[in-house]
Design a protein that fits this description.
alpha/beta; Rossmann fold; 2 domains; 6-stranded mixed sheet; two-stranded antiparallel ribbon; 11 helices; 10 strands; binds iron/sulfur cluster; binds zinc ion
Length: 306
């Protein structure tokens, strides 16, 4: 098998592009896809301050490494969520990577930010822990990124993530989320915009990239993750991809171009700000999700282990 670019021995085959690459040209391909996403969606410029959310998983590790290699100004933010060994290991990997590469990554602790670790939530909160965890991460990431003077918050979402979320929203006609399916979401008020520069790369391509570049990442799954529907959506999409070449990219980018415009005016909710912390909220009570959950927890003697 020969590299499509240089005709030397190829190591990686990409069916969806009918291409084969040697290591060097595969890396070049990854940078090209990232650059294309940044330019075509006007994500950020070289002189902007990028705050990269680094969980320790392969996508976020690849994301900060690629952007750094491409000469962007990156600062990583890692939030230790307090999920036993899983969080300890994630923090260790992120810290080691930062030390060895010189890429700055700041580490924060949910316990210090919120007063409680994820593992400390018990019923009824424990039943919807991923939803709570996701909201807490978003909330504190926004606050930290603003404090650090970030122009944009960068996340490592890839094409498979975007397709599975889109499929779920379409299946259940989640009209309120469909307009938000876009690789750039403008920040409200003081908040930086959110961007997804890995949107043109698949799960598999990123896996090959981190292996090739010997980027460390957390291999274990979070012990609290339950069988989310997105796993099934990804399986279906992977199956389709084996039958219909490039179907994921067609699905997502055609949606953005041809269908998303129909959903743009669906949601015209007035932006309000939390009267406790000032964070944006759409809640009728005027108190954001994180402040109201804090109030609930303080009002109860809900402590104890998860
Ligand atoms: S799986 Fe759920 S609890 Fe674990 S890190 Fe992800 S969102 Fe948080
Ligand atoms: Zn080559
Ligand atoms: Zn609030």
């Amino acid at each position: 098998m020969k590299c499509t670019v240089c005709k030397k021995e190829a190591t990686i085959r990409l069916h969806r592009h009918k291409a084969k690459f040697c290591n060097e040209h595969f890396i070049e391909y990854v940078y090209r896809q990232v650059e294309r996403a940044i330019k075509s969606f006007k994500m950020f410029r070289k002189d902007e301050n990028l705050i990269v959310a680094v969980s320790g998983g392969k996508d976020s590790m690849a994301c900060i490494e690629v952007l750094n290699e491409m000469g962007y100004r990156v600062t990583g933010v890692h939030i230790n969520l307090g999920i036993h060994e899983f969080s300890e290991k994630s923090e260790e990997i992120v810290r080691k990577f930062s030390r060895e590469t010189g890429i700055p990554i700041k580490v924060y602790y949910l316990k210090e930010l919120f007063g409680k670790e994820i593992i400390e939530f018990k019923r009824p909160y424990a039943e919807k822990i991923c939803s709570i965890c996701g909201k807490l991460k978003r909330y504190y990431l926004n606050i930290i990124a603003s404090e650090l003077g970030g122009d944009a918050i960068v996340t490592g979402h890839n094409l498979d993530d975007a397709c599975s979320i889109l499929l779920g929203n379409l299946l259940f006609a989640q009209v309120q989320y469909l307009s938000k399916q876009y690789p750039v979401v403008e920040g409200e008020g003081e908040l930086p915009r959110k961007v997804k520069p890995l949107i043109r790369l698949t799960d598999d391509e990123l896996k090959q990239y981190v292996e090739l570049r010997k980027i460390p990442f957390v291999q274990e799954k979070c012990p609290l993750s339950k069988g989310a529907n997105t796993i099934y959506y990804k399986e279906v999409l992977n199956y389709l991809e084996t039958k219909i070449r490039s179907v994921k990219a067609e699905f997502y980018f055609n949606y953005l171009k041809k269908l998303r415009p129909y959903f743009l005016n669906e949601e015209e909710t007035e932006v309000k700000y939390c009267r406790v912390c000032g964070y944006k909220t759409s809640s009728r009570s005027g108190i954001c999700y994180v402040c109201s959950i804090k109030n609930e927890l303080e009002g109860s003697d809900d402590k104890g282990p998860y």
